[in-house]
Amino acid sequence: MRQKKHYGATRILITALLVLTLGLISLPELQAEYGDVVINNYSDESGMRPVVFPHWFHRIRFRCKVCHADLGFKFEAGGNDIDMLKIIDGEYCGACHNGDVAWSVENCDLCHSGKTGTATQVHESTLQKLTTPAGINRVK
Fold this sequence. Notes:
- The chain is globular.
- The chain has five helices and three strands.
- Strands 2-1-3 form a three-stranded antiparallel β-sheet, with no helix packed on it.
- It is mainly alpha-helical.
- It has helices at about 1-25, 55-60, 65-70, 85-90, 110; strands at about 35-40, 50-55, 120.
- It is about 30% helix and about 5% strand.
- The chain has a domain at about 30-120: Cytochrome C3, CATH 3.90.10.10.
């Protein structure tokens, strides 16, 4: 009986990995959306791609006050002195991206997805490509 359960679990795992692998092969090129915020205060100089913060993705889930009052984000691109130490200490993004509420900081490429050299800004056009496809190496 145990062997059958083990075989079934292995088959499910292999199928899931195959589906995931095939899905990753055909990833479309990503584009930033209207209102996304590029955060590149320290990324380029640290050898990381800039952060592309999906503002409206967060806005449809939370009221403005959650981030701008409770967490202290200023209403200005580049107006916040955010760095990874503060995020790891639970400030700014780290208040939610702690592994409990949302993914934790070990998933670097989920946030650090911008094109190297993109200035800190609020993105206002879906035509401009600010992001790099997954798997592209960091700044060298």
